[in-house]
Amino acid sequence: MGKWSDNEALMRSSVRQEIIKALWEKIKVNGLEQFNILKIVLGLLEPIEQGYLETEYSRKFDEAVHKDDFMTFQQIIENTLRRTAKKKVLSRTSDSVTLGDIEDEVDKTLAEIQSGEHLSMPLVDEVDPMITPEDIADLKEYMDEIQFSGSVSIFNRDQMYPPLEQEKFGDNPIFSIHSVAKVFTGILLMKMIRDGIISEDDIDKPIQLSDSVLQELSPAVQERLSHATLKQIMLHQNGLGDYLDNASGHAADIEQKLNAGQAVPEIKSSHDLLKYGEKKVLNPLGQFSYSNLGMLLLGFAIEKKYQDAQQAKGETPSLGIDEIMRHFVKEDVGLKVFENKRPEKGYYAEKQRNLQDKKPDYIKQYVSARYASTAGGYWTTNEDLQRFAQWIRAECERDSRFKQLIERYGAEFYNPQKQAVEHSGIHADTAHFYTSLRNGTTICILSDQGERAATNLADMILKQTTWYKSQRIATEFEITPQVRPVSPAYDRALSLASTSQPVEETSLEVKKDSGNKLGK
């Protein structure tokens, strides 16, 4: 393994040990009887029809605690985690299971234990990345090691490094940025508020859309929009669904037409996408639920306000959201490439699930038929993403209110802990955009690989150039006793426990019988 892989292995080991140490200390203080839910998560207690079966590992776990034997305690947890992780991975795939798959599952379970047990862990103070030419060489070595396919561009401390990309892509290749497009939408909205086209007061008022947009939506969606604020639309708290990957969505229509040997639907503007919107309201207002339809409608809210301003000035013709976005990125920001549809040499993750067994001509037609909107899918280059990042930073430095608007309303794309504008592009994360408003470091990654390749690589670059250099333990979040974070493994364990007897949040009373069966 190369230097970065070695660092990652050391960090993974350190984080695991810190979590297990924190768990040990909590058990020593509170007593074993409070941790049967933990045992279910670990697989030390196995659910059966009438209760729970105590495993040999469970008894050794208890014995290690009673004997104050931390080393044995740690070994039992690690061995049990790997055994349980292998079962989980095998249950999800028919492919061969790698050691890396198992270790990733172990880390996931430990993170859920940290969350479910409210373990307070040390966080690394966020520091600015310090990317050196040596780091770039290490990055190239790591990209070769993991066989990364794509383009990486990095700007750090007034230095733009040459892009790292494979020869097969040629110069300045064009990729789909998928949901990174939402950063463009959000920044455009902040600019319109700053410029007075949209009032800041409108953020907390119901979204305003033109009649031509509303009439394309179902009565249920129209009713929801009469109450949903612009802020709730921005932050995916509107309860709306999708327009792209839902059962009757844009992607499904393309697939159905291709599978039937028919011509693909011709989409000429974002307005043509409205007919694909989910007809039902899926969640309560105010509850987070990722909604591409909501982000599509955010674009049309921008369109409505822009056209109102045009009308007040007597400007013609009225621009639609596609033209408004194109003017913003081409004229204001200065991008050279920014397309709604796939260019002739546009790269895309063609091995995604619904395309992996298709012929090249099918894939070409499928990808070329998709139309980008304010919810996602634009096509551009790494060079242009760097231009966009530079423009954002320059505007924040020039106008403090613009930065304040991003900090106040940009939760969709602004990370306050990192003080950075950041977003990944789905389809298994084929794009990632990161620019620090603190020191200007920018990392742009575009890939045709999928499988979280872009986001995983961005995370690795940040870890290698911040946390590892500080030689301190880093964890993803800090747990406080007042708020119980999401922990699916604990939710499942609590649900299983409740089917046999009432339980409290952090405890499950179980009794042994002569056959080591645990139940009522």
TrEMBL record:
GO MF entry, a single one: hydrolase activity
Protein's UniProt keywords contain Hydrolase: yes
Pfam families: Beta-lactamase
Domain Beta-lactamase-related span(s) in chain numbering: 169-392
Keywords, comma-separated and alphabetical: Hydrolase
Region (Disordered): 497-520
Skewed-composition ranges (Basic and acidic residues): 508-520
Protein's recorded name: Beta-lactamase
Organism: Candidatus Berkiella aquae
